[in-house]
Amino acid sequence: MWSLDGLEGRLKEHSEFIDSLMCLIPPKHYFKNDPNASDDEEKFQPNKKKRIPKQVLKEQKKQAKRQKLDPNNLKTVQELQIEKLHKIQQEKQKEKEQKDDEVNKEEDDEDEDDDEIEYDVDVKIEKKDSDEEQIEKDTDDEEEEENDKESQSDLVDGAESDEDDKNKIITVAKNNGDIKKGVDIKKSGSVKRKIDDVHLKVKLQDKIVKIGRLKRLDPEKAAELQVKEAWDKAFLKAQGEKVKDDPKLLAKTIKKKIIKKRKSEKAWEDRIESVEKSMAERQKTRTENIKARIDAKNKKKKNKRK
């Protein structure tokens, strides 16, 4: 009976016996000839050596013979297995280190990109907010000046009585109130209606005319307005919206739509005409068939009477 006493010693003896048997096997019978060749290549490409030039094949045979006769290369199967195991472990360690380096590099790059993007977005948002505040302030000042001028002209021209003056002053005071200040049109609850291309083209042309007039009167303000519009356009594009701000392209789009509409109208008219024609032909055929049946029936009756 086997016992646990001396189990380690017996396992060691068996291992040494197996190793000694392995050392008796020549490596050429235990390993494949080309260590770099895979099993698939040997199995599915048996004629691969035929494609190698004869001179190269001859040199390879000489080199293999020299290595075979070299006493330093006479290693046992066990030694070769240990070397192969070490080589595989080194390759795995190297791959692991490369993967770790790549992961660390990607994380560093992502952190840098995130920091740059956050900084750029913060700067752009601050600049946009400051530009909008300045433009709103200038617009409010202009509206106040215009309202003041209108109120003064109304008071001078229409001052017929004290009551009328009082009513006009009350009306002007109401109109000059800070109603528009602090109101964000974009954030209000109004429903955004879709503008067709024709109205959009007219609107763009009016805007171009106004900007050209503003460039002559106040170039700095015109430049600020153009910068603001450029930022608004960029934000809309970033949100996935299509920005139509080129009158020439809009004109082409309108022309294409008109041509397409005419073609669809023509196709629809042709369709109606063909349907009406088909119905008329079917009705004519039906009438002829009914008439032929009646004639055949009458003829049959006449023949029976005879």
Automatic annotation (TrEMBL):
Q: Where in the cell is it found?
A: Nucleus
**Record's protein name:** 7837_t:CDS:1
Q: What keywords would UniProt list here? A: Nucleus
Q: Which residues form the Ribosomal RNA-processing protein 14 N-terminal domain?
A: 10-71
> Which residue numbers delimit the Ribosomal RNA-processing protein 14/surfeit locus protein 6 C-terminal domain?
89-302
- Where does this protein have compositionally biased stretches of type Basic and acidic residues? 81-102, 121-130, 278-297
Segments carrying the region annotation (Disordered) are 28-171, 278-306
Q: What Pfam families has UniProt attached to this entry? A: RRP14, SURF6
Query: Can you quote a single GO CC term?
Result: nucleolus
According to the UniProt entry, its GO molecular function terms are: DNA binding; RNA binding
The parts of the chain that form a coiled coil are none
Biased-composition ranges, Acidic residues, are 103-120, 131-148
One GO biological process term is:
ribosomal small subunit biogenesis
Q: Which domain of life is it from?
A: Eukaryota
Homology family: Belongs to the SURF6 family.
What lineage is this protein's organism placed in? Eukaryota, Fungi, Fungi incertae sedis, Mucoromycota, Glomeromycotina
